[in-house]
Amino acid sequence: MAKEIGKLSLTISPDALRSIIESGRLLELADTLATEAAAQISAQLVDQVATSAVKGDLKNGATAGVSFIFDGGDFGTVPPRPHWGVVNLEGFRGGALRRVAGAAAGGVAGE
Question: What pTM did the predictor assign?
Answer without folding.
Answer: 0.58
